[in-house]
Amino acid sequence: MASVPKTMKAVVIEKNGGTEVLQYKTDVPVPEPKEGQVLVKNDYIGINFIDTYFRSGLYPAPSWPYILGREAEGTVVKAGGGETYGIKEGDKVVWMAEGAYAEYTAAPAAKTVKLPKEMESKIGAAALLQGLTALTLIREAHAVKKGDWVLVHAAAGGTGLWLCQLLRALGANTIGTASTKEKVDLATKAGATHMINYSQDDVKSKVMELTNNNGVAAVFDGVGKSTFDLSLECVARKGSMISFGNASGAVPPVTIARLSPKNARLMRPTLFGYIATREEFEHYVNELFEIIPKEKIDVRIHEVYPLSEAKRAQDDLEGRVSTGKLLLDPTA
Ligand code: NDP
């Protein structure tokens, strides 16, 4: 059996706030895997916007002190017994649950899968949560068809670049938005057929011009508060407004009568609701792992930050500096 230390490095919060509440500690107890869990020694940890919501208090932390982070890639060093879905000690895995900003995580085996042999560790860590989000959004939140016009906000972000590439594979007409020329170029390379630099151009008029005044069949809006009204204005008759995040803040309550003029649908999906069961999780992970080589998906990694620099990483994510995925390395 692999030797497991008693304590580990981890980033812990003891209260809500800005990035100053992120505490890098070197003496956090290594968790003991319970039945149905596997203890994973993490190689690369994925950073996601949701981590900032738990830090700020927008989403309540389930317990205190709390270790942020929802996904990582690593090696199983111990199994806690019970059903582990064929996952055993020594396996390289990716997992999605809680407590990722740490050297070790006791992850539920039901939300852990083996890393494909041909996949690099970093890619596994970078692909899982954002890749699955994009995949489930275009399959279930609004089933996008070839030729559909869709609008993707923050198209050069982690989830945005995934959406652009998966929508290209489907043959959709993707209009992306981004704040800088560098981001516009990246999203175009990823498959956005039309890009709007919203720092320079008016998004609604461009969308209407491109769609012959019809609007788009679906808006995928992870920006939230600052774009909600604009997004709804860009939706076509019988279209879908998919609000899936709060990067600019939470969307205030909406009066449903606002959907009537276009017979529009409004959804507020979360990935976790699409992969709640083992069957659903495996189904989408298998599909994602097949799509990556088949569609030559470029899983763009913005930067690998040392775990001790989680604050700088979250500052970059919230400061709109990043493009693609941010990772943490617990060994650095
Ligand atoms: P991104 O890499 O997309 O980073 C956020 C981007 O949003 C920024 O780079 C910026 O792009 C844009 N943005 C616009 N306004 C703001 C603002 N006020 N503050 C910060 N960013 C802003 O992050 P993720 O891919 O991790 O997440 C994107 C969104 O998707 C988040 O809202 C997240 O919560 C959501 N999400 C939801 C999931 C779900 O299950 N529902 C799962 C995964 C992600 P630009 O400069 O081009 O405007």
From TrEMBL:
<protein>
    <submittedName>
        <fullName>NADPH:quinone reductase</fullName>
        <ecNumber>1.6.5.5</ecNumber>
    </submittedName>
</protein>
<keyword id="KW-0560">Oxidoreductase</keyword>
